[in-house]
Amino acid sequence: MDINYTPEELAFRDEVRAFLDNKLPKEIASKVKNNQHLGKEDTIRWQKILNEKGWMALHWPKEHGGTGWSPIQKHIFEEECAEYGAPTVLPFGVNMVAPVIIKFGTEEQKKTYLPSILNSDVWWCQGYSEPGAGSDLAGLKTKAVREGDHYVVNGQKTWTTLGQHADWIFCLVRTDPNAKKQEGISFLLIDMETPGITVRPLITLDGEHEVNEVFFDDVKVPVENLVGEENKGWTCAKYLLTFERTGIAGVGQSKAALKHLKDVAGKVQQNGKPLIEDPLFRNRLADVEMELMALEMTNLRTVAAAQAGGVPGAESSFLKIMGTELRQEITDLFRRAAGPYAQPFLPETFEADYDGEMVGPDFTNSVSTKYFNMRKLSIFGGSNEIQKNIIAKMILGL
Ligand SMILES: Cc1cc2nc3c(=O)[nH]c(=O)nc-3n(C[C@H](O)[C@H](O)[C@H](O)COP(=O)(O)OP(=O)(O)OC[C@H]3O[C@@H](n4cnc5c(N)ncnc54)[C@H](O)[C@@H]3O)c2cc1C
Q1: SS3 4
Q2: If I label 129, which of 182, 293, 308, 327 is the partner at 20 to 30 A Cα–Cα?
Q3: Ligand 1 center to residue 265 CA distance, Å?
């Protein structure tokens, strides 16, 4: 395997860098880099800029407006975006529901939904998990009963990320309660404005409103909003999850965070010396750096295999575990670097227009919230324990 970039790939990287230099709004990048609140309007603004350039849909076929990039190009793009502090593209529309519509939807559905996803005119959220159905997703109970030209939906979804902003939700619902678990499920697109839908916030450990519960009370959904065949939604669900795991290693984010951490640790003083000279801290930092280099190589190997026509298999489970553990460890090291300044919780300092006093050095105000927020990484997208089960079965043959 050749893990050096070719001259064409290096030229592509220069093109990406030039685009980010010119088009990524500085105030948005500054919010990302300083862990300040990003508004819905910031995300949409950036996504519209990407769409103007034709760089919004990395994983779509070209005929629908995708980039047609190779896996290596996607990798380079994602890495550069992380380095420059570009906001993460919200996956729910472009990387989740859209590939399902492209693969299983009718021509009418493609015409109706894809353009507004590409241009970020419609904000989507994901209605998979329920209080009793997370790892065991096929145990979901939200039901949809067909009545003439519509379904009547009743039940509850949970952990719905950014559902408070969403215009539409894609849902897995049970359409045949008598079939085997996976067989009676359907994939429905639901307008959040439909009467009978209630969204309630769930406030997470970091004090943020990022996830929600969504309740459905006799919600009428037109039958034309069914994607694929009735009772065959599990096929769509599984197809979507392969996209959910795309870029799961988060190498670009970890590299950018590690660079920042080293910079900070070179400035913070402990016992009259920069923290980076403390042997215990240095040791942990070196461990992270080595693990990250190993992860990057493994990630590139997987990307190179995909480029050569292979399909990422159980190794994406490995990438997910390693990548998320590293990102969590880096947030822990930031807390260590902040010392006692990691304690105060001052949410007003997360706003870009805050001009009051800071309690400690600038980087310290958000280290604890980031640390708590990043606990989610090992839970969603298939928890790390579930990934270990996959590795045990598929790689170790246990
Ligand atoms: C911040 C956040 C955002 C999310 N966003 C969304 C979203 O937008 N849309 C959506 O649909 N869902 C979302 N989720 C839900 C997420 O997919 C689930 O939390 C996840 O699948 C785990 O399910 P659960 O929470 O029900 O935990 P459970 O499945 O109840 O698991 C509890 C614990 O048991 C372990 N466990 C379970 N089964 C096994 C097993 N067989 N072997 C070993 N260990 C096991 C798990 O690893 C976990 O540690 C989000 C979750 C979080 C935390």
Answers
A1: coil
A2: 327
A3: 34
Strand residues in the chain grouped as ranges (E): 124-127, 143-147, 150-158, 168-174, 185-191, 197-203, 209-222, 226-227, 269-270, 273-274
Distance CA 213, CA 197 (A): 10
Q: How far is the CA of 385 from the centre of ligand 1 (A)?
A: 10
What count of other Cβ atoms lies within 10 Å of the Cβ of residue 148? 6
Cα of 386 to ligand 1 centre, how many Å?
9
Ligand 1 neighbour 261 (Cβ under 6 A): no
For the residues of 152-211, what is the DSSP string, one character each? EEEEEEE--TTGGG-SEEEEEEES-TTS-TTTTEEEEEEETTSTTEEEEEEE-TTS-EEE
Q: Tell the residue nearest (CA) to atom 26 of ligand 1.
A: 134
Residue nearest to atom 11 of ligand 1 (CA): 128
Ligand 1 contacts CB of residue 385 (under 6 A)? yes
Give me the active site residues, please: 244
**Is-contact 168 76, C-beta < 8 A?**
no
Task: Tell me how long the chain is.
Answer: 398
Q: CB under 8 Å to 216, separation ≥6 — which residues?
A: 142, 153, 154, 155, 156, 157, 190, 196, 197
For ligand 1, what atom is nearest to the CA of residue 163?
A: 8
**Which among 204, 294, 309, 304 has a CA at the least distance from the CA of 249?**
294
Q: Which residue CA neighbors atom 22 of ligand 1 most closely?
A: 134
> pTM of the predicted model, to two decimals?
0.94
Per-residue pLDDT reduced to its tens digit, 48-82 = 999 999 999 998 999 999 999 988 899 899 999 99
Task: Find the distance separating the first CA and the last CA of the chain, reported in whole Å.
Answer: 29
Exposure string over 31-59, b if 16+ CB within 10 A, otherwise e: bbeebbebeeebbbebbebbbeeebbbbb
- Distance, in Å, from the CA atom of 70 to the CA atom of 304, rounded to the nearest integer, reads 10
**Does residue 171 line the site of ligand 1, with CB under 6 A?**
no
pLDDT digits (tens, 9 = 90+) for 135-191: 999 999 999 999 999 999 999 999 999 999 999 999 999 999 999 999 999 999 999
Taking the centre of ligand 1 as the mean of its atom positions, its distance from the CA of residue 134, in whole angstroms, is: 5
